[in-house]
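BUG-245 | component: ligand-complex export | severity: low

The export step for farnesyl diphosphate jobs runs without errors, but we want the raw record kept on the ticket for reference. Input record follows.
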Amino acid sequence: MTRHDVPGHVAIVMDGNGRWAEKRRLSRTLGHQAGLRALRRTAEHGARLGIHTLTVFAFSSENWNRPATEVKRLMELFMGALDKEVKGMHEHGVRVRFIGDPSAFQPELQERMRAAEDLTAGNTRTQLNVAANYGGRWDILQAVRRLAGAARRGEIEPDRIDEETFGGQLALCGTPDPDLFIRTGGEYRISNFLLWQCAYTEFYFSERLWPDFNAEELDRAIDSYRKRERRFGLTGAQVRERANA
Ligand code: FPP
């Protein structure tokens, strides 16, 4: 309720791969590859610090509108990453979960996503949630549709739908809400990520482009988080009183 040392759940919008590449006159694909290396570094450092859950925005529902070649290269990168990284993650006790609508991906990619989830399903050391073809509004709408269907079938009383019932239908059900939300790339937006789940999340915006994000910058974000008082709608005095109780 008050100050916390290490956030249990960190959500990241990994922005700036394209600009990082363009600054170096490289292709945007090379920027995304460097982004994948930054993700590996960050996940490893996060696990060492005791961050239990990392949720990263890899591909939004709006990213399909990017140039076709960039989308194709990103899909190849995801496919390659699943082939190369999953075994190592499994050995390190990482549980991988995908959130989003997988149906738009090629069947081979969907198959690899499922295989990664199945292989790592029993791991409990850390959890990596990869948002792919995800949008916060999509997430809320699919929950609404499911609950409306259940209400129509008489399985649930509409008046009884509360935050818990609703949260149980969202893509991240069973995972506590993010404690800390990090966005790199100098943009100050949520961009349709985890809209429901970030109601009381602390935000940290980094000027660094995602491929330049490293352990030091993660430490800085956590330092900033540690100094905050999480009030969850209470007054500062109430929070201090409860902490001392
Ligand atoms: C945003 O930067 C980044 C993306 C849309 C892709 C992020 C993907 C990775 C970091 C690879 C992760 C891989 C796996 C398997 C999880 P941008 O392209 O919008 O950058 P810009 O704002 O500079 O153009």
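Assignee comment: Attached the raw record above. The CA atoms of residues 41 and 130 lie 15 Å apart.
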